Amino acid sequence: MSLLIKGATIVTAMDEYRADVLIEAGKIVAIGDNMESRATDVVDARGRYLLPGGVDQHTHFALPFGGTFTRGFETTTAAAVGGTTTIVDFAPQISGLGLIDSVLKHEEEQAKGKSAVDYSFHGIVMDVSQRLFDEIPMLPDNGIPTVKLFMAYKGTPFMVDDGTLYRYLSDARAHGITVMVHAENGDLIDVLQKACVRAGELEPRFHAVSRPPLVEAEATARAMSIAAMAEAPIFVVHVSCREAAAAIRSAYLAGQQAYGETCPHYLTLTVDDLAKPDFEGAKYVCSPALRSKDHLDALWQAVSRGWLQVVGSDHCGFDWRTQKHLGRDDFTKIPNGAPGVQHRMEVMWTYGVETGKITRQKMVDLCCTAPARFNGLFPRKGHIGVGSDADLVVWDPGHRGKMTAADSLEGVDFTPYEGMQQKGRAQKVFLRGNLTVEDGKFIGTLGQGRWVKGDPYGAAYKGL
Ligand code: URP
Ligand code: ZN
Ligand code: ZN
Question: What CATH number did the domain enclosing 238 receive?
C-alpha cells in the first residue's frame, strides 16, 4: 500500500514549497511531482498546508502531584486531534527505584497499550541516592536521553539542592544526557507562600505573588552558572518571564549550550486570569506563574529570534471541580499545572502565525523540529523528509472556531483557553502513515502509539 498526499504546501522548519508526499510502510519515501502511478491511495490536500506531526516535549500524563494524579495516556487522543503525533512525557522517579526502572514501569503501566500517539520519556529525579548517579551511563541505552531536575517545590520529593544539580550535570554530560531544569527558587517561594498564608492571602491570585519573576530569574541565572561550572549543556523548561529568557540568552551568547522552552499559556494568558472570581483563577495555577503582558511580549520576541527554541504544552490534565478544588481554601494546595496538549499548535498558529509574530517555518520549528532534535528524535520525528516517519498534519488555515473544553479530549472539565478564537486546525493527522484524525475527530485507536527511544546528545547539535 502506498499513499500520496497531493497538492498541499509543505512547511518545514527551513522552507515552504508545493510538492506531493509519497508514503510506504509508515515512512515518507518520496517528495515530488507526478507520483500518482506509484500510489494506491490519494489524499487531496489542495489549499492546505502539510506540517510535520507535532512533537510536544513537555507532557505530564499520570503525574502524581499534591496528593492527586493527572489524567492518563488514554487522553493522548487530545494530542492527536491537536496535530501532535509524538509526546515526550516526564516519567517520575519512584521512591526506592532508579530512573531506568521508574521509566520502564511508567511505560508498562501507563503508556503501553493506551497511547494514541508515539511517545518518548524524560526521567524526573525524585529520590537522590548513589544509584541515581551510578546508572547515568546506562540511561541512553534505556531510551532516557533527558532528565529533569527541579529547583522548586520545597517540601516535596521533587526539589533538589544545587550540589545535586551540579553533580548530575557533571556526570550526565559525558553520556550525552540533556539535563532539563525547573528553575524557580524553592526556598524563597516557601517563605513567600508562608507569608501569604499567615496574612490570610489564600486565593489563587496569591500563587503569582508567592512566585514573582525574580524567583524564576534568580534560579535560571543560578542554573546557568552551575551548568557553566559543570561544563554541561542545560535546557530550561517552561520559561515564563523576560529575565529568565534573558539569562538563558546571555549564557548562550557567552558560549554555553544553554537552551529553553516556553509554553502557549505563557505566550497568551496573564496574571489577570489568576484573579478571576469564584475560584476560576485556580484553572490558571501553574508553575512558574502567569505574568503580566510585558513579559508575554518579551517571550514572543524570544521565540521569534531563537533565544528560546521550543514551545511545549506542560500539559497537566487536572480537573477543576474535583482536583483544583483541593486548594479551595488555600492556594498552596491547588495542584500545579493546566491542560494544553490539544491546543498547543492551534494557539501557536492563531496567536503567533496569524498575527505575524512568527513565520509558519518558525512555528514548525518550535512545535515539531526543534523538540525532535533536543530529544534525539530528529529526523525520524518532527520533519518532512525522505526517510522520516510519515507523521503528517494536513493543516486547514481557513478553519475558524473557538477553543472550548466541550470539544476537548483532554478528559477534564476546563481548558485555560476557553472561548479564545481559533484560526486554523489539524484537519487530517497521519501517524506513521495511518489516518488518525479526520475533520478534527479522532478515528485511530488507543494503543497505536509506540515508544520511540530518543538518542543522546540532543542538546549538542549545531546550527541553533
Ligand atoms: O505547574 C506545573 N508546571 N506543573 C507540572 C509540574 C512542572 O513543574 O512541570
Ligand atoms: Zn516544572
Ligand atoms: Zn511540567
Answer: 3.20.20.140
Q: Say which residue the cell 556526570 belongs to.
A: 171
**E-state strands within 66-159:** 68-69, 84-92, 118-124, 146-150
Q: Which residue has the cell 546571555?
A: 250
Longest dimension (CA), the chain: 74
Whether residue 410 lies inside any domain: the answer is no
C-alpha of residue 286 to centroid of ligand 3, in Å: 9
Mutation test of ligand 1: which of 58, 59, 60 has the most ligand atoms closer than 8 Å to its C-beta? 60
Evaluate: CB of 265 within 6 angstroms of ligand 1.
no
Parallel, antiparallel or unpaired: strands 54-60 and 16-18 = unpaired
Nearest-CA residue for ligand 1 atom 5 is: 337
Q: Report the residue count for the chain.
A: 464
388 in a structural domain = no
In this predicted model, what pLDDT tens digit does every residue of 383-426 receive, in sequence order? 999 999 999 999 999 999 999 999 999 999 999 999 999 999 99
**What domain count does the chain have?**
1
Q: Quick one: residue 387, left, alpha or beta (phi over 0 = left, psi -120 to 50 = alpha)?
A: left
Say if ligand 1 is within 6 A of residue 308 CB.
Answer: no
- Boundaries of domain holding 173: 52-382+452-462
Does residue 426 form part of some domain?
Answer: no
pLDDT in tens, 26-40: 999 999 999 999 999
d(CA 119, CA 377): 10
> From ligand 3's centre to the CA of 333, what distance in Å?
17
CA distance 453 to 144: 7
- Residue 420: inside a domain, yes or no? no
